[in-house]
Write a structure and sequence with these properties.
- The complex is a heterodimer of chains A (about 475) and B (about 160).
- Chain A has a domain of about 100 residues.
- Helix content of chain A is about 40%, strand content about 20%.
- Chain A has 17 helices and 16 strands.
- Chain A has a five-stranded antiparallel beta sheet, with helices on one face. In chain A, strands 8-7-6-11 form a four-stranded mixed beta sheet. Chain A has a three-stranded antiparallel beta sheet with strand order 12-13-14.
- In chain A, a hairpin with a 5-residue loop joins strand 13 and strand 14.
- Chain A is globular and about 65 Å long.
- Chain A starts with a strand and ends with a strand.
- Chain B is α/β, with parallel strands linked by helices.
- Chain B has one domain: Rossmann fold, CATH 3.40.50.
- Chain B is built from four helices and five strands, in the order E-H-E-H-E-E-H-E-H.
- Chain B is globular.
- Classes of the chains: A alpha+beta (about 475), B alpha/beta (about 160).
- At the A-B interface, helix 1, helix 4, helix 5 and helix 6 of A face helix 3 of B.
Chain lengths: ~475, ~160
Amino acid sequence: MTKKITIEPVTRVEGHGKVTIHLDENNNVVQSRLHIVEFRGFERFVQGRPYWEAPVLVQRLCGICPVSHHLAAAKAMDVIVGAGTGEGLTPTGDKMRRLMHYGQMFQSHALHFFHLCSPDILFGIDADPAIRNVIGVIQEFKDLAVQGVMMRKYGQEIIKATAGKKIHGTGAIPGGINKHLSQEEKDGFLNGADPLNIDKMIEWSKASIDLFRDYHAKNKELVDSFAAFPSNHLSLVRKDGALDLYHGVLRAVDAEGKKILHDVDYQDYLKYIGEEVRNWSYMKFPYLLEFGEQEGWYRVGPLARLNTCDFIPSPLAQKEFEEFKAYTNGKPNNMSLHYHWARLIELLHSAEMMKELLNDPDLMEGELTTKGKKQNEGVGLIEAPRGTLFHHYKINEKDEITMANLIVSTTNNNDPMNLAVKSVAENMISGESKITEGMLNAVEVAIRAYDPCLSCATHALGQMPLEISLFDKSNQLIDRKRN
Amino acid sequence: MKVLIYGYGNPGRQDDGLGNAFVNRIEEWVEEQRLQDFFFDSNYQLNIEDADAISDKDLVIFVDASKEEDLDGFCVSKVDQSTKVAFTTHAASPGYVVNLCRRIYKEAPPVFLMHIRGYEWDFREGLTEKANQNLVKALDYFKEKIADSKIKSEPEILEKAC
């Protein structure tokens, strides 16, 4: 007899998802799947709209990471207005956008670690759900919860200062940016009263890595084996191989570290990336065309980025990166829970980059925009907090958008998240006759490591939790749990 | 008395922008009336930093759109700290924000949530006609209540059954 467990939706993950796990008569897992309902209406919606509206329009997609969509669309429109593919902007345009992006990365990573991931780390994934939550964290580790609040607030203020406003930011425009940073804003971010200044943000970011390091040391076997599986890894890297979250060339490495996508221009992404449709999922499965649907899938996000880049161009994060790389003897790290480690190194890097940018006079003066020969097509890629985000547009002679194609970060991680669920299900659920809260949370922990934004992937509204259901061989529901 | 009026939602998704629209309209009215100590904010959703934002206020009103079909235009209810530990996404519920504020800052101001009924949620700017009618009703109600001198000592007069 086969049983089927369904988890829907996932707590502490953006958007909603449903996990189904099929068990046989001995409670062994025979199949597991993460189901996400992807709504593709947005691509049709932008057709007919003037191209210059795109950086603002795309923020309708998702209220979780609007800055990433804003910047990816703006980068695509840079190409259309002839401003080049990243290197062509003025120093002010480039650096203001980078500051906006690092602010977004900083607040998103801080929120994920301190308020979504830390309950699992501090209390253990088997802990009572009544305490394994952020309220429990506040009771036991109040300083950490406060740090999470203040780090997110700092990042949000950076976004507001660069994008112009919190909702439907207008900062990035085709060919550049529409404002400078004021002296007052700069002074506030650099030297604001404790704790809202950049040095405190760097200090706390560094301390968060120490927290993970301590957890790792005490739980080495779990952290290293939980949902660990080999994969390809894909991200942007700077042309010299440095980690660059805003712009670069597209690189992929395999599980052994061999380059399998050689620093290509992302304007040509369709030559290298395909999207597979599977009849059981509304969300597509991207893959490297050269290696096919079975072998070409890849991870994106913090873990993938640290696996593809050669170094990190900020000193404190570079030091952490060296330890991170040494842990796997320079080979790619394929351990899902190490996403948290990589995310925190990026948190520190983002803080360092914000400090460097805030001290750059180009933010306060200089030309804001540039343009050149008009094009009828443009692709914009960015490393969003959750991974590589693709925006691709075509326009007609009336400057109207005629085609849009988006591959969001969470879609890029579709295969890895499914494999993470499968790994956990096989290791923690197979052979068990009863599904415990700890087991259910273990499945969620695996998904949560990828920090998916299902709201973004599905373009859905509202809160979407996770439910797990159990079906027998005849597809009869025998249990269901919802968090 | 420091009053924060905070609307949230995505104004690029039609009636999901009801909370944001409420804040825009009430801010204009407050300026016309030359009322003091009103603060306004608007975002896609509530989040953890809003625990800090409400911590130094005396009264907070969150405004959100609602899909509730039984809702007669709008309603206002007092927000208790969330007893459910469901911090489910990168967004936070009003109750969660109150809970976070109370845990971190030892106390939280009285917080009310206004729900305004919406109908359409597509990728468009602008409210539907019916949602706009509900918005006007909610604005009129709020203006009347906020002008009542009892609001300081009895903020519960803001409540309207859902």
